[in-house]
Amino acid sequence: VRLVVLVSGSGTNLQALLDAAADDAFGASVVAVGADRTGIEGLARAERAGVPTFVESVGDHPTRDEWDERLAGRVAEHKPDLVVSAGFMKILGPHMLSAFPVVNTHPALLPAFPGAHAVRDALAYGVRVTGCTVHLVDAGVDTGPVIAQEAVPVREGDDEESLHERIKTVERRLLVETVGRMAREGWTLTGRTVRLGTGRV
Ligand code: GRF
User: Fold this and answer.
1) Average pLDDT for residues 101-118, to the nearest whole number?
2) Average pLDDT for 133-148
3) How many CA atoms are closer than 13 Å to the CA of 70, on its beta-carbon side?
4) What global pTM score does this model have?
5) Residue 2's closest CA among 186, 183, 165?
C-alpha cells in the first residue's frame, strides 16, 4: 500500500511511519512526503530516509483553490492508496478530498478542541483527560469520521509543551497502528463509521 504523507513541521509522526514502514510486515510504504513550506525538519527526515519530497506553498498560488488543485496533482504523481496528514497545518480542499482518502492525526479527543491550538485550548479549559484522534479528513476542520482515539492524562504543572509531548508519544503509536491496520486489513466508511478489516484500501 502506497502512502503519501503531508507535513508542516518537525515530522515526528512522519518519522514513526518511516520507521514502521522499514519492516515489510507493516504493509505500507511511504512513497513521498509533501509539505506546505520549505526548511522544516519533516522534509529533512524524508530526505534522510531517501523518500522523494515536494513543496507546494499556498503563497505561491493566486488562490487557495489553485493551491489545492496543484497539491492534488503533485500527490497524484506518486499514485497513493492513502494520504496521511501528520502535522499538516492547512485545510485540504475539494480537489484533494475528491482524489484521495486522507487520514489525519489530531492531538485532542475530537470533537473536543478542533483546530490548530488543540493542546493549548485543552490546557486552558482545565481538562484532566485529553488525548489524540486519528480520523478521515472531510471538508471541515477536524470534523471527519473518527477511526481511533486514545486518552492521555493531564498532569499537575503541565504546560503546552509537556502535555503535547505526552500526547505525541501516544499519537505516534496510534497513527502507526491505525494506518498499518488500514493498509493490511482494508477499511470501509458507512455514514460516519469507519470499519477496519473489510478488505478495501
Ligand atoms: C502533532 O501533534 C499533530 O497532531 C499536530 O501537530 C503535531 C505535529 O507533530 N497537528 P510532528 O510534526 O508530527 O512532530
Assistant:
1) 98
2) 97
3) 16
4) 0.97
5) 183
Question: In Å, how far are 40, 113, 120, 166 from 107, measured between CA atoms?
Answer: 20, 9, 10, 10
Q: Best of 168, 170, 173 to mutate for ligand 1, by most ligand atoms within 8 A of CB?
A: 168
pLDDT over threshold 80, residue 199:
no
Burial of 152 (0-12, 13-18, 19+ CB in 10 A): buried
**Cα distances (Å, whole numbers) of residue 40 to 6, 34, 154:** 12, 11, 29
> Which residues have C-beta within 8 Å of that of residue 35, sequence separation ≥ 6?
6, 7, 8, 42, 43, 53, 54, 55, 56, 88
78, 95, 106, 135: which one is catalytic?
A: 106
Residue type, 30: V
pLDDT number for residue 192: 97
Q: List, for residues 13-64, the tens digit of each pLDDT value.
A: 999 999 999 999 999 999 999 999 999 999 999 999 999 999 999 999 999 9
Respond yes or no: is residue 95 known to be catalytic. no
What pLDDT, on the 0 to 100 scale, is given for residue 201? 64
Q: Residue 141 in contact with residue 133, Cβ under 8 Å?
A: no
Contact 34, 107 (CB under 8 A): no
Yes or no: say if 64 and 58 are a contact pair by the CB < 8 Å rule.
yes
Tracing cell 515489510 back to the chain, one arrives at 24
Residue 5, phi then psi, degrees to nearest 5: -110, 135
